[in-house]
């Protein structure tokens, strides 16, 4: 069990930007669509997700060669992913966002260098504030007015040791975790000389369109309807920017097994058919517990306050018929678990894990369609105190480029204090990236470390 805080001396990686340009498909795309339909799930995810992938020095692929290869690979892959070179537009008649893909406005591509070596940066898992310089979210040479900025920017940053980082800032509307993994694999495949695409993406997002007429057949407390109607389009699932602390909470395989032991029901209620909870369930339950108990003023907990955890769930295999595995877009919903803080504090950990585990089981084919129809009517947003987004099974660290696999990959710190990202490391540990206001982070950290002595 360990906590990693940012290195305060490395908030500036002393980056020099050498190239900032737009990249276009290498050939005209055959399907001249004027706009791309976005599902009700896509609509609310209009914010950037920055990620970074670190690679050691490779004598056969110095950073300047990597930059050239990756830029050419991007040009090729955009023939299939033409919408990623498009821009968002608001359909004034429907009030819905669409992607204008036929304008081929371009994807961003940035080349930069740092005065540091990877060794000087230290632990790459550390939530370094400087890593935000490795995945820029806008191009300075473009105006931000009227949606001119790219929806996707890829950046190659070299370090003085010869190692390098590939940063990606992608608007969540374009891709969810699974389709981002496919895009990364396809981009990597095109960096080779003669490889085909890893997997042909399936682009028809109308598979997740609402029914006509909509039919809401379940209550959906995991969403709420905003009070004020949206003037400039759908509401955005976002939070205000404020001063935050960032920490990585690391759990070893031994500690994960300890959590699973704590999650076992008492001998009086245990069933012979009871399943061992997943690593995600126990980690998510622990993060929920720490977040719920850290929200009080000082150490005072409002025991009657209800805390709700939202757990991101992939829909692809849950629908009937299932979505194509290569579905490109946002095929995710949130499962919820709610409990009073007093019960979260004093109740058995096994109960929390059970609630976290039961939430996804609720999302059947009919339930998912009911959510999509509810969003069609209410234009709502996720309704929870804390959201857990798991990257444990996405396998970003397993993507093979001509220069090898990344030695570390993960999210870049940002202003999302309402989301906890859970991701694996190459040595088998599980990391949780937590971003909270300073005083709340102190309480969160305290509850995290005290829990392992909790009976």
From TrEMBL:
What Gene Ontology molecular function terms does this protein carry? acyltransferase activity, transferring groups other than amino-acyl groups
One short Pfam name that applies is Transferase
> What InterPro entries does this protein map onto?
CAT-like_dom_sf (IPR023213), Plant_Fungal_Acyltransferase (IPR050317)
Family named by the database record: Belongs to the plant acyltransferase family.
Stated name of the protein: Omega-hydroxypalmitate O-feruloyl transferase
Organism, scientific name: Buddleja alternifolia
């Amino acid at each position: 069990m360990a906590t990693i805080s940012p290195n305060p001396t490395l908030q500036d990686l002393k980056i020099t930007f050498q190239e900032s340009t737009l990249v276009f498909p290498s050939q005209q795309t055959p399907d001249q669509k004027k706009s791309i339909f976005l599902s009700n799930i896509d609509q609310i995810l209009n914010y950037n997700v920055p990620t970074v992938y670190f690679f050691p020095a490779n004598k056969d692929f110095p950073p300047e060669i990597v930059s050239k290869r990756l830029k050419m690979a991007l040009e090729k892959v955009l023939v299939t992913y033409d919408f990623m070179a498009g821009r968002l537009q608001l359909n004034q008649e429907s009030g819905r966002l669409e992607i204008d893909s036929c304008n081929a406005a371009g994807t961003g591509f940035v080349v930069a260098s740092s005065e540091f070596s990877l060794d000087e940066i230290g632990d790459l898992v550390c939530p370094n504030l400087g890593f935000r310089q490795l995945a820029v979210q806008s191009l300075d040479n473009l105006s931000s007015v009227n949606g001119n900025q790219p929806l996707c920017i890829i950046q190659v940053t070299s370090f003085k040791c010869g190692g390098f980082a590939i940063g990606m800032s992608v608007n969540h509307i374009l891709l969810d975790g699974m389709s981002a993994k496919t895009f990364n694999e396809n981009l990597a495949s095109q960096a080779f000389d003669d490889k085909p695409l890893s997997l042909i993406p399936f682009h028809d997002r109308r598979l997740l369109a609402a029914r006509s007429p909509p039919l809401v057949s379940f209550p959906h407390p995991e969403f709420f309807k905003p009070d004020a109607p949206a003037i400039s389009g759908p509401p955005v699932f976002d939070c205000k920017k404020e001063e935050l602390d960032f920490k990585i909470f690391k759990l070893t395989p031994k500690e994960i097994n300890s959590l699973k032991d704590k999650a076992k029901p008492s001998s009086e209620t245990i069933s012979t058919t009871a399943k061992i909870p997943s690593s995600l369930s126990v980690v998510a339950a622990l993060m929920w517990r720490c977040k719920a108990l850290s929200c009080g003023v000082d150490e005072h907990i409002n025991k009657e306050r209800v805390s709700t955890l939202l757990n991101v769930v992939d829909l692809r295999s849950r629908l009937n018929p299932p979505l194509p595995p290569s579905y490109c877009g946002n095929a995710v919903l949130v499962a919820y678990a709610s409990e009073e803080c007093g019960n979260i504090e004093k109740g058995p950990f096994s109960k929390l894990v059970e609630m976290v585990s039961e939430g996804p089981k609720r999302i059947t084919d009919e339930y998912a369609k009911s959510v999509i129809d509810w969003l069609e009517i209410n234009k709502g947003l996720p309704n929870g105190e804390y959201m857990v987004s798991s990257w444990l099974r996405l396998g970003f660290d397993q993507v093979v480029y001509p220069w090898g696999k990344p030695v570390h990959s993960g999210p870049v710190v940002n202003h999302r204090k309402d989301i906890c990202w859970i991701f694996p490391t190459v040595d088998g540990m599980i990391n949780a990236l937590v971003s909270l206001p300073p005083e709340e982070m102190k309480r969160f950290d305290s509850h995290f470390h005290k829990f392992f002595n909790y009976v």
